[in-house]
Amino acid sequence: MGINLGRLESLLLQMSAEGAPGREFCEAISELARTGRFAQLHEVLPGIVYDELWARYKQDPAAFVAGWRQLAQEMRQGFIQHARQRLTSLTRIQAVGNDQAPAWQGIQRALDGQQNDLLRTAFALELLEMVEPAVQRATHLRECVVAATSSEEADRYLDEATRCYFFGLFTACAVMCRSVLEEAIKQKLPAGLTRQIRTRYRNAATLGNLLHEVNNNLQMTGIDADFPRIANQVNDTGRRAVHQGILSEDEARGCLQNARVAIQLLLRNRSGSSTTRDAALILNFPCPTRQPSMN
Predict the structure, then answer these.
(1) Cα–Cα distance measured from residue 92 to residue 73, given in angstroms and rounded to the nearest whole number
(2) Closest to 263 measured CA to CA, from 161, 195, 115, 172
(3) Contact assessment for residue 254 and residue 285, using Cβ atoms and an 8 Å cutoff
(4) pLDDT (0 to 100) of residue 293
(5) Got the DSSP string for 118-158?
(6) Whose CB has fewer CB within 10 Å in the chain, the N or C terminal residue?
């Protein structure tokens, strides 16, 4: 039996409506006031709050009851939008004095201070919406099978880059692809060349610097001659992501596929049967043309 995402979303919306922070609080105040039991609020509210509410109730009991009932309805109906706004307020720059929220949102936010149901609901809805697009993106990739290992850090970088692509963080995906190759190259270089690079670039070699050195020392490193060209495409896309703006999904996918092909070339078995064409076929990626070796 497959997972019904629509049903999960419906259940989440239902639970959110029933458990919207502040709804029961407002309904309780309205009902206690309507039934002449206002004094019971003295036991649960701070004195200054109780006195303020009592003063407003005495001014117009009917309006007081209707007003708190209306607040409860607004909290229930507007909870999902408020939850999304709560999350967005943490992810984007907020202008000073730009807080023009209605009264019910202020109450709901205050009552939710310890429970964090606004954020929990926003995250749950957002993650549910990511599932199907992530599944579709994952179908464009194949396992990245290599003959030799690199490092745990390189593996984590690749994992993060791939997950960024799955979840629509396309610019971050390209940036992480550069980190994958940087780390993998450092692990692959001979010790002598590593020392030279550290000295030459004062321990601050970029991916571009590393690829330049690899291209000039292909025989020493034993790295496939196709690797620099494909890795440079990753570097170009990553640099564009950092300096020129948000990437599209297609650009991120191409960068990630290039990075995975490059990793397979870098970590292939030099004496085995893993070839450039094999790596390209595994990833459904156009097979790069082999270039002359440059030393």
Answers:
(1) 29
(2) 161
(3) no
(4) 38
(5) HHHHHHHHHHHHHHHHHHHHHTT------SS---HHHHHHH
(6) N
| pLDDT profile of the chain (295 residues), mean per 10 | 88 89 93 94 92 95 95 93 94 82 89 92 96 97 92 97 98 98 96 96 96 96 96 97 95 98 87 44 41 38
Q: Which long-range contacts (CB under 8 A, 24 or more apart) does 193-202 make?
A: 193/217, 193/220, 193/221
pLDDT of residue 212: 97
**Class of the CATH-defined domain 140-282:** mainly alpha
DSSP string, 54-85: HHHHHH-HHHHHHHHHHHHHHHHHTHHHHHHH
Measured from the Cβ of residue 149, the count of other Cβ atoms closer than 10 Å reads 10
CB burial of 243-258 (b: ≥16 within 10 Å; e: otherwise) equals eeeebeeebbbbbbbb
Would you kindly state where each structural domain of the chain is located, as residue ranges? 5-125, 140-282
Query: Which of 24, 116, 114, 115 lies closest to 73 in space, CA to CA?
Result: 24
Res 142: pLDDT: 93
